[in-house]
Design brief:
The protein is of the alpha/beta class. α1 links the parallel β1 and β2. α4 packs antiparallel against α10, α5 packs across α6 and α7 crosses α8. The longest helix has 22 residues. It is elongated, with a radius of gyration of 22 Å. The chain starts with 5 loop residues before the first strand and ends in an 8-residue tail after the last helix. 47% of the residues are buried.
Length: 355
């Protein structure tokens, strides 16, 4: 067991539900089990650049004994997902030493973890990582903090949009996040019963989409449909009236809506909903809270064991440490086009493209 007594934690990259639950778990376990002092670094590496840190107490935010961190979205430490920290690495390393930090737990996606890991190597820090991202594209972990809540948020939105679509005989195109990985669109689409799911990992055909929607209308008498589109899908060139191999200026949801209207053999009333940052907000789900508690506890234990350069990950129902270098080498983690979830979507009658 190390003699580390001054532990820091920071949250980096885009916010997501569950970050505060991670902070709560780290502070509680480090304080109760090891009697360490825990410092929060505000606004990720910007806080280190500014030489700022704040003491964290497991009861510091209690309101008459009520612990708000389990149910509070976002992050009380603040976060950033921009800037060139590595260009000022010397300042970061100097301030880390000036703050008297003996170990760091960083909560972030693969981009943030790559930067933090590089700083840790340069500064010889004891560094443990916790994965978080609503895209769920960090490698070597089945789940990252925030993903489950984001899926639930999307499903709730689609449930609401389905009633409007059915009432007005509309095709509702719902654009969700996912620039390179389609985990959000795939899982939320299946869970909400979407008729079409488009993800970056699979090519699609606008003509096939229109044929699928026509079959729903003509064979099954379904006069509405739900189309879930990941923001990072690639334009297809299979339709001449507007399709382009270059990325369109409009959102991909609007692009697909335009293509459906141009391709359909009969008039189609298509509407677009871009969920945007709504997907990042909200109260963390029970699963994300359990994941946050497990990750936070495990990260503190790794620090106590003298481990460094490790990320806690969720594999086969338990938390296991994996080398950050291996995580970064295999990230981003994309949807396997041959996965059982893809097969499930097709078996349930969803159009999802093909290789």
């Amino acid at each position: 067991m190390t003699s580390a007594k001054r532990l820091a934690i920071l949250t980096s990259g885009g916010d997501c539900p569950g970050l505060n639950a991670v902070i709560r778990a780290v502070v509680s376990h480090a304080t109760l089990s090891y009697n360490w002092q825990v410092l929060g670094i505000p606004y990720a590496t910007q806080g280190l650049l500014d030489g700022q840190a704040m003491p964290l107490s497991m009861h510091g935010l209690d309101l008459r004994g009520i612990d708000p961190l389990l149910s509070m979205g976002g992050t009380i430490l603040g976060t950033i997902n921009k800037g060139d920290t590595l260009a000022r690495a010397d300042e970061v390393l100097a301030n880390y030493q000036a703050l008297g930090l003996e170990a760091l737990i960083g909560v972030g996606g693969d981009g943030s973890l790559a930067i933090l890991n590089q700083l840790a190597v340069q500064g010889n820090w004891q560094f443990i990582a916790i994965p978080k991202t609503i895209d769920n594209d960090v490698a070597l972990t089945e789940r990252s903090i925030g993903f489950d809540t984001a899926v639930n948020t999307i499903v709730d939105a689609i449930n609401r949009l389905t009633f409007t679509a059915s009432s007005h005989d509309r095709v509702m195109v719902v654009e969700v996040m996912g620039r390179t990985a389609g985990h959000l669109a795939l899982q939320a689409g299946i869970a909400s019963g979407a008729d079409v799911i488009l993800i970056p990992e699979l090519p699609y055909s606008v003509k096939d989409i229109c044929a699928h929607l026509a079959e729903l209308r003509d064979r099954w008498k379904r006069r509405f449909a739900i189309v879930v589109v990941a923001e990072g899908i690639h334009p297809t060139g299979d339709y001449s009236q507007g399709a382009s191999e270059t990325r369109p200026s409009c959102s991909m949801g609007q692009y697909i809506a335009n293509e459906i209207m141009a391709c359909s053999a009969y008039p189609v009333d298509v509407r677009v909903s871009v969920l945007g940052h709504i997907q990042r907000g909200g109260i963390p789900s029970a699963l994300d809270r359990l994941l946050a508690a497990s990750f936070g506890k495990a990260a503190v234990d790794l620090v106590a064991q003298g481990q460094s350069g490790q990320m806690v990950s969720w594999q086969n129902g338990t938390v296991v440490p994996v080398a950050i270098a291996d995580v970064l080498a295999h990230s981003p983690f994309l949807v396997d086009p041959h996965s059982s979830l893809i097969q499930t979507a097709r078996a349930l009658g969803t159009y999802i493209g093909s290789l």
